[in-house]
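Annex B. Sample input.
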Amino acid sequence: MAYLHKVLGDPVRLRIVNMLLASPSCVKALCAVLDMSQPRVSRHVAVLKAANIIDSRREGKFVFFSLQYEKECEGLFQCIINARKDFELLREDVKRLQNFQKEFC
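Annex B, continued. Sample output.
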């Protein structure tokens, strides 16, 4: 559990998990929301994947990432959802993701 806290202690990875709680997504949409390069976002995604927090599936030319709902992550995921009430950035990320998904995914 301490390892999960360390992985999610990074603000970028926390924002990625927040967005994936709302909807599976491709890296291109995540990059657009985060305003970061694809290699940088992909490194964060790789850390989350290595920690078994997210999973991937290929659909045509796109790779979609989604959360793996392990029992030990449920509490952390609920905390992130609850944090949306207090942090506008988390709410805005979800809204922006939905718009960029229409364009990129």
